[in-house]
Amino acid sequence: MTTCTSTNCSPSRSSLSCCQVENTSHDNVRDVAISSPLHPQSYILQEKHSFPRRPEVDLIFKDIRFRVKQWNLRNLCAKDKEILHGVSGEFKAGELVAIMGPSGAGKSTLLNVLAGYTLHGMSGEVLVNGKVRVPHSERWRRTSCYIQQDSLVRGRITVGEAMTLAAHLKLGYTISSAYKHTQVLNLLEMLGLSHCYDTLCGRLSGGQKKRLDVALELLSNPSVLFLDEPTTGLDSMSCSQCIALLKRLARMERRTIVCTIHQPSALLFEMFDSLYAVANGYCVYRGPVHALIPHLASIGINCPAYHNPADFLIEVAIGEYGISVDKLATAVDSIWSEETPAKPQPIETQIEDSTKEPPPPAGFLTQCYLLYKRQLLCLKRDYTLLVVRLLCHLLIGIIFGYLYMGSGYRANGVLANYVYLYGSLLLIVYTGKMAVTLAFPLEMKILTREHFNRWYKLAPYYISMLLIEIPFQAACAATYLAVSYWLTGQPIEAHRIISFMAVSIAASLTAQAWGFFIGATTPVKIAVFVGPILAVLFSVFGFCITYIDTPSGFRWLFHISYFRAGFHSLLYTVYGFDRMDLKCDEFYCHYKKPTKFLKEMNISDTNVINNLVLIVGIGVLMHLLTASALWCKLNRR
Ligand SMILES: Nc1ncnc2c1ncn2[C@@H]1O[C@H](COP(=O)(O)OP(=O)(O)OP(=O)(O)O)[C@@H](O)[C@H]1O
After folding, report:
1. Which residue CA neighbors atom 13 of ligand 1 most closely?
2. Where are the transmembrane segments (predicted)?
3. pTM of this prediction?
């Protein structure tokens, strides 16, 4: 056993954490790891970290196959491609398991399938403590977490804020804030992140980000942790710290920890308890790490002296020693077919034990509030975007106002005003749409990950996002409209101003709703041109072409074009509502009477309220479609 030194032990620290820090620096994990959960120190850990005891989980998987459809563009037919070919295995509570293999072997695919992240295309059975796991099992998702390769914590919030927010979301308000705060502090201390409490997440090093990812998920105290390549991108010291940490979590807290890993160093490799090796979608070794070399020797492949066993395994798997994957797989099968099947676990360790249920997560409104707070905090800290967007709208408002100055009240400026109104609508439709079309796909990654790990539901997330984006876009549009409306000399009458603002902002927000839909359903590369194409297509109606001139096959577009509805309403707002004759400084002004202009444009009978309802209706419909598309994406696994 190791001891605490006065140099790294402050009175507030638990003796265990100090030892962990000390041990980590020496890479002497084996000394720290306590093999039995009943060991006195495991009690200390339990008490210090106040984790309610979670049920231990043993995972068995049988004959797992994973197929994808591959399209052959030449023959225009789809072919099934099998990526995992009936692999089986068992991961026990308290074990740190490495899934290893050459690149493209199927490691991530296996991890995804075992975590329940990918279900579509999978066949076979996953047994949790002897019971078959049902697809989309909520209980399973409460029991496990999946930490992906890329750290996706928001850069603009501090470690303390990220942890506190995650604690409120995951643990809800049935337990006290003091308890959650203690949990947060203990976890940060346990993972060596106490000194980063006030550091912005974006400023953490790669290793610290990985540890923060683990800390965030440990808040809900999962029994099973899946990690996809937790050491990728880390230096050797951070790799050792990361794996040492995982080993402690497995050994001392009896969690089942499974991670994929690429060619670890010999030292790192030895830290794992168990190894699951795959090559070409077949299992080529499963069992304790220390038994790998004897196993390979038993089938006639001897590891050269002073060779890293992990490197040796990969070399064998890619055929450098002249043995095929089939033979390796057969050797594994022959060993395991002699083993007796695992017995189901005793009742106390079944995850269905209701007395060990984790606390319920935050309620709907609380989730909305917490997510809104997070978004607001990020926005407050990174206000450049906000300011630039507002300034751009202000600047373009001044430019447009200057270019079309006075066109709003002059009879010979009606056509110029017509173009100003069209240009204004096009501008706020574009800015509303494109800002979210491009930003949303980045959000998708965070949403997918946090939603899968049960941080929150889709609806609170979507609502909190709208509560930020809608006022922001409305403010930008209002800034532009107010400046340009005044400079271009539009009528200063309350009902016209209100109608003008309402219609324009509604059109901008509906365009934003379209942006969300396109961003959520199409890849960024396609979204960048689909967005503008749709905006231009809808803007043609009512401006470049009248209803009478529209070919009958396209007339339905005229009816559903929110742009057309918005544009006609703006014209009517400015020139309708019994407006008096316009100012005419010349001998003849064709459009002195505003009604004449409306008649020639074929919009005398425009109903602004009906158009507003249409615009808002389309906006609401697009949001509903976006939410449905997101729901399908998040749940189609
Ligand atoms: N959805 C899919 N469609 C087609 N092929 C796929 C799909 N998913 C995975 N594959 C293929 O399956 C194989 C295994 O992929 P996987 O990502 O699991 O490998 P890996 O062992 O994790 O590789 P690496 O170590 O390079 O990340 C690869 O050849 C990959 O191209």
Report:
1. 104
2. 383-405, 417-440, 461-485, 497-519, 526-548, 608-632
3. 0.78
